[in-house]
Amino acid sequence: MSIIENSALGKSTSRRGFERHLKVENVSRRAILQTLGLAGGFVLAAPLLSRQAFAAYETGAGKMPHGTVVDPKVFVSIAPDGIVSILAHRSEMGTGVRTSLPLIVAEEMEADWSRVRVVQAPGDEVKFGNQDTDGSRSTRHYLLPMRQIGALARAMLEAAAAKRWGVPASEVKAVNHEVVHSASGRRAGFGELAADAASQPAPAIETVQLKSPKDFRYLGKGQVSIVDLHDITVGKARYGADVRLPGMKYAVIARPPVTGGKLKSFDPADALKVPGVEQVIEVKGWPWPSKFQPLGGVAVIARNTGAAIKGRDALKIEWDDGANAAYDSVAYRAELEAAARQPGLVVRQEGDADAALKSADKVITGEYYLPHFAHASMEPPVAVADVKSDKAEIWAPVQSPGGTREDVAKTLQIPPENVTVNVTLLGGGFGRKSKCDFALEAALLSKTLGAPVKVQWTRDDDLHHDFLHTVSVERIEAGLDKSGKVVAWRHRSVAPTILSTFAAGADHAAPFELGMGLVDMPFEIANIQCENPAAKAMTRIGWFRSVSNIPRAFAVQSMVGEIANATGRDQKDMLIELIGSPRIVKLGSVKDLWNYGEPYESYPIDTGRLRRVVEFVAEKGNWSRKVAKGRGLGIAAHRSFVSYIATIVEVEVDDKGKLTVHQVDTAIDCGVFVNPERIASQLEGAAIMGLSLAKYGEISFKNGRVQQRNFDDFQVVRIDEAPLITNVHIVPADADTPPSGVGEPGVPPFAPALANAIFAATGKRLRALPIGNQLAI
Amino acid sequence: MIKVKINGQEQSWDGDPSLLLLWYLRDELGLTGSKYGCGQALCGACTVMVDKEAARACITAVSDVAGREVTTIEGLHPTGDHPVQKAWRQVNVPQCGFCQAGQIMQAAALLDQNPKPSHDQIRDAMSGNICRCGCYQRIENAVHLASTGV
Ligand code: FES
Ligand code: FES
Fold first, then answer.
1. What distance in Å separates the CA atoms of residue A153 and residue A214, rounded to the nearest whole number?
2. Contacts of A377 in chain B (CB under 8 A)
């Protein structure tokens, strides 16, 4: 399994690293104590354990850079007063992972959550295992390892107590933060036992029992709030932008307005006159494409951010725009459409779709356009760096602390061991903060200035220099026989690839992009062909929450609605018919089926589960209800990040074309789950993000420049246009169904369900996003 | 020299009087609870109260608040137990949390003026505050809860 096995880019399953080099080093106990800020505390000792020991199911975790580390001595420490510290090694950007993963450890070790402290791990994948918080992978990859870590810690505490009391370990039991010997009534708290526990020989992982799910106090219950909740409500939660160091300078940077452009000349005189501005200096840039290296430009250094922004406004700069100055979204769309109307690289083939389309009784064609989307996380990119000779310390809201460490090291040409990446809370991420260009800028500036520096991106910086969601044309032709059965399906998907951010000239989708809703399309149709015509990138393309699933689900699920309409069928019945019989989909013709990096045996495409989630949402969301005139219901279902999701949307379109979303029902089957309360919040949020991108989402280019600059011309949904009700329904899962993604899968089905609902309400089929004023009468 | 009371404390500023309040709070005073999200009064992340009314600190100059009283999220309630803050926790509103200081200040200002806002009044008053994570349903529920007693 690999995303780009046969390319020159190297191998990785990660959203970032295409070159990963990190020396394995031994971890000293002192270093752990420092990390946990617990001098005098005690750290449980256990050997490094095999990466997939007693796995009930295989995941792709071991194939991520640096795999997983199942080691209680790394993740758990117990202070003499009984406070248990558990490391969170993934980044918190709103999914709740900083709570959920430590909670799993606490559950298994029988720790009392009110006596647990969560400590954020710095970027160090040798020590902690993979830290890329992306791909909706955290629970999927870490549920089992975190349970194992907790179970090992529990076993060691039990062994320590048994030894102290001279009784067999089988007679003692950890219960709620203490170990109990019920025969004698003796008990000892975790704090009392920590030192002895650490001196016990570590049990073999195979001998350690995981708790039975029926004994869970926290997992699956949803009664634990996120650990940062109080701090957030009182303004104490610390995000990247909130880091302050003594002597820190504030910087904003003017960057080339066109991707691949360069600085020609600049005049700092007026900027230097602004009160509070201290210096104006050039920032090194890398030629495009350069992965996540800075774009370069001119930095204004000031005593506060306000002065730096004013100084930048006063700069006079001349840029050399380069070839991408020709980037024009209107012209580019026409190019994509032309490409989608010609045969392209065949990436999946079953039967003979060409012949079947020719002989079909009826062919329905849908050509769908989805523009670039911007991440626009509420906290724009920001980072603080303090570089002193050959050492660098970074504080930043990064989704990829390990990758950031490596990239800072490479950029400053120092060893990764000399780089400390402190992960703050992220004010939203959505994939943008997997790319650490902003941290590299701060590192370069701090090195030049010899002082700590904060680089703050303004909102227009964020919109102008994003790694945008691709722009795509999806063209589907469905051939129907006389009875109305779909017998042929040809889907051409054409869009600039994320690979273009890593290698000049990359113009075909990578397996990980093809595998997001194109080649893994699950319908039971005799003749299927998927094609990927070439598309040249003209700006930085990157991962945006749900990635290529957004355009693919929009096209495929809108097409289901189109076929239902053409054949006079109910949308949901049509969807179930196309999904076909409950089965494991075989995709023999697909080379490099990505499957989200997961082994197909654990995470196959199971149409039984997809059908079930459709039936589940139809029942819970009352699909069969009658709605008033001017209103309509739409449905869509999609498998992504190895989860199954279906969404029903009820809309109203008034006689002026004003759109109101009355109700959203989303059902998810994500296997066994940790925190249903956070699953609900993620899916509520996904509906808002889906509505935002459907209504307004577009980032467009003219003369190579992004045309939007802030939340006036780049709009997002506000509370007064949010769905009036959003219901989330979680399909109950057996404890042995492997966990799957939650953060991203909610987004893709929303826009097509909305489009299908708008069609039901108005008879108008939307084939291009954003909706903009398409509904205006 | 500009004098302004912030969270009950007298402050004086002898730098650029046109410095925007947001940066004065965050960078000069270290009150980082108020956030930057847009800089143009479009998102509400920087919302504070000036003499009890919600204001966007990102477009307000320090000189505009001379002699007035500014309250930030840090000063909303001494123990963080303003009814809005309590309601926010009860409803588990935040995802990433970055917009929430602004949301809470806006909601507190709303309830100050209108202790029992209707559904539409809540949606109207809160519509200047963007939450990119999409916590709106819970924001609305939490404002409602705060207005009915937590
Ligand atoms: S930062 Fe002030 S309204 Fe957005
Ligand atoms: S909670 Fe993330 S922006 Fe509102």
1. 20
2. 96, 98, 132
Query: CA dihedral defined by B118, B120, B124, B125, rounded to 10 degrees?
Result: 10
Q: For residues B131 and B99, is the Cβ–Cβ distance under 8 A?
A: yes
Q: What is the 3-state secondary structure (H, E, C) of A273-309?
A: HCCCEEEEEEECCCCCCCCCCCCCEEEEEECCHHHHH
Hey, are the CB atoms on B127 and A722 less than 8 Å from each other? no
Instruction: Spell B72-109 as b/e; 16+ CB within 10 A means b.
Output: bbbbbbeebebbbbbbbbebbbbbbbbbbbbbbbbbbb
> Which of B:47-86 have CB within 8 Å of A?
72-74, 76, 80, 85
Ligand 1 centre to CA of A475 (Å) is 40
**Residue A476 · residue A450 · CB < 8 Å:** no
Distances (CA, A) of A259 to A286, A320, A432, A633: 11, 11, 17, 42
Q: What is the average pLDDT score of chain A?
A: 92
User: Which 3-state string (H, E, C) describes A664-724?
Assistant: EEEEEECCCCCCHHHHHHHHHHHHHHHHHHHHCCEECEECCEECCCCCCCCCCCCHHHCCC
CB contact under 8 Å between A719 and B28, yes or no, is no
Answer yes or no: is pLDDT of A136 > 90. Answer: yes
Strand partners, A122: none
The C-alpha atoms of residue A341 and residue A542 are separated, in whole angstroms, by 25
Backbone dihedral region for residue A314 (phi beyond 0: left; psi -120 to 50: alpha; all else: beta) = alpha
* DSSP string covering B99-144: THHHHHHHHHHHHHH-SS--HHHHHHHTTT---TT--HHHHHHHHH
Best CA proximity match to A54, nearest among A148, A155, A158 = A148
Cβ-Cβ contacts under 8 Å, A384 against chain B? none
Q: Is B92 on the interface with A (CB under 8 A)?
A: yes
**What are A37's two structure tokens?**
């800020």
Whether A333 shows a pLDDT value over 80: the answer reads: yes
CB A571 within 8 A of CB A635: yes
By the 10 Å C-beta count (0-12 exposed, 13-18 middle, 19+ buried), A396 is classed as buried
- Tens digits of per-residue pLDDT, A674-718? 999 999 999 999 999 999 999 999 999 999 999 999 999 999 999
Beta strands in A230-276 (DSSP E): 249-254, 262-267
Confidence of residue A129 (pLDDT cuts 50, 70, 90): very high
The ipTM assigned to this model is: 0.99
Distance CA A638, CA A627 (A): 25
Question: Judging by DSSP bridges, how do beta strands A178-181 and A172-175 pair with one another?
Answer: antiparallel
Reduce the DSSP state of residue B60 to 3 states and report it.
coil
The closest ligand to the CA of A681 turns out to be 2
DSSP calls for A628-643: -TTEEEEEEEEEETTE
Pairing status of strand A643-653 against strand A631-640: antiparallel
Q: Is A305 in Cβ contact with B27 (below 8 Å)?
A: yes
Whole-number pLDDT of residue A547: 98
pLDDT classification of A44: cutoffs 50, 70, 90 = very low
Beta strands A116-120 and A84-88, pairing class: parallel
Tokens at A94, concatenated: 């709103």
Q: How far apart are CA B84 and CA B71, in angstroms?
A: 15
- Residues having CB within 6 Å of any atom of ligand 1: B 36-39, 41-46, 56, 58
From CA A692, how far away is CA A675, in angstroms rounded?
26
Q: What is the C-alpha separation between A482 and A751, in angstroms, rounded?
A: 31
Confidence (pLDDT) at A33: 28
How many CB atoms lie under 10 A from the CB of residue A600?
14
Neighbour tally for A213: CB within 10 Å: 12
Q: Mean pLDDT throughout A232-257? A: 98
Which atom of ligand 1 approaches the CA of B39 most closely? 1
- Residue A145 Cα to ligand 1 midpoint, Å, equals 41
